[in-house]
Amino acid sequence: MKKTVLNKNKTLIELGYELLVVCPHCASCAKVIALDNPSPYIAHVRRRFICTACGVIKNKVIKANGYGQARVSYEPKVNYEVILAKNPCDWYFRLPLYLQIACSGNTLWALNLEHLNYIESYIEAELRESHPYYLSVESRLPKWMKLAKNRNEVLRAIQKLKVKNY
User: Fold this and answer.
1) Section 71-91 average pLDDT
2) Distance, CA of 61 to CA of 136 (rounded, Å)
3) Fewer CB in a 10 Å sphere around the end CB: N or C, the chain?
4) Percent of the chain surpassing pLDDT 90
5) pLDDT tens for residues 102-149?
6) What is the pLDDT of residue 8?
7) Neighbours of 153 (CB within 10 A)
8) CA neighbor of 99 nearest in space, from 114, 85, 110
9) Beta-bridge mates of residue 18
10) What distance, in Å, lies between the first and last C-alpha atoms of the chain?
């Protein structure tokens, strides 16, 4: 019987309560956690960077733009704070994500283990429910990741990330 998956329609925002990042001080796995609402679109929320390997802790409050909202953008703007979302990095401190690996000529990345497991369950399924919610993780996965010819390579890469030292 073929493996199937039903769309859970989770968004990156729902999975962004905890981001695993590379500590800029010791290169260990660190966390960026939401102390308030995990959405990057909400202004005046607190985020904390924590590295248990070297003990560094940093706090940040996401400022508002002219409309009283935080801003996620793919390029920097001049007049207000922007949360850059261009590369596989956290949205607040702009640190590289810990869970990233080269795969099929691209970069496979995940925000945290829950996100990685979510991607894995979708990729390993041979039958997938069609028409996911347009902002869901399923709908936003790149085509190369969804192709059957890349399935085994993507799943191997996911396994490598799962055993990466934390």
Assistant:
1) 57
2) 26
3) N
4) 44
5) 999 999 999 999 999 999 988 988 776 676 666 778 878 889 998 999
6) 74
7) 16
8) 110
9) 33
10) 35
Helix axes 113-124, 151-162, angle to 10 degrees: 160
Query: How many Cα neighbours within 13 Å face the side chain of 67?
Result: 6
Side-chain half-sphere of 44: how many Cα atoms within 13 Å? 4
Here the tokens at position 90 are 């956290």
CB of 17 within 8 A of CB of 38?
yes
Tokens of 9: 């329609």
Kindly state the average pLDDT of the residues 156-166. 89
The token pair that represents 31 in the structure block:
């966390």
Which residue is it, tokens 């953008």? 73
* CB contact set of 64 (below 8 Å; sequence gap of 6+): 43, 44, 70, 80
Phi, psi of 160, rounded to the nearest 5 degrees: -60, -40
Q: In angstroms, rounded to a whole number, what is the distance separating the alpha carbons of residues 34 and 22?
A: 17
CB within 8 A of 5, min separation 6: which ones?
121, 122, 124, 125, 127, 128, 129
Q: How many CA atoms lie within 13 Å of 108's alpha carbon, on the beta-carbon side?
A: 27
